[in-house]
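JOB MANIFEST
job_type = single_chain_structure
chain_count = 1
residues = 171
[input]
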Amino acid sequence: MRPPEIAAADYRNDGFVVITRYNGQMKIALRRIGNSLGVLLPKATLDAWGLREGDSLLLTDKGIRPLSRGGFTHQELDEHRRVIALAVIRKFSPREIRAQILANLSRWKGQGVWGGAYEEWLQVAAHANDGELFSAMIGRDENAVRLRQSAPFVGLLPKEEVRKLNEEAAG
């Protein structure tokens, strides 16, 4: 029977193990490289990250990952906002979403923080049907993209879930 740590491998006749696929998580052995210790990463992982020889990785207390590109493109940022809005829609009823929108808008107006998009959100939250609410939150038209830049439904998702979504978006 194969040891569990190499269940995704094939044994060759000469005793070597050839890995035929990689799981999402795997152990990476430290190896001596000259006078240092290092790791070898699977080429498939580097390809998925869009990296090649000479590129850099970021080592943190949480793991190894590619360096950030310095931010999102406009399309990536809007898609991330849509993912967050969709997570809100999946977890909360339209009534709960409207209540959060109205509470945030009321607080922001009282603090003197107000913009044109907030007036539109106020109309959506107070008067629109559920379809119009969802369209503003996750639609792909220019109006929805513009409104998502000032999304007033923040505070509904737990901070840990938002952090996880942000990390996933960052790659």
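[summary]
The beta strands are 9-11, 17-19, 31-33, 36-38, 57-60, 63-66.
The longest helix spans residues 74-91.
exit_status = 0
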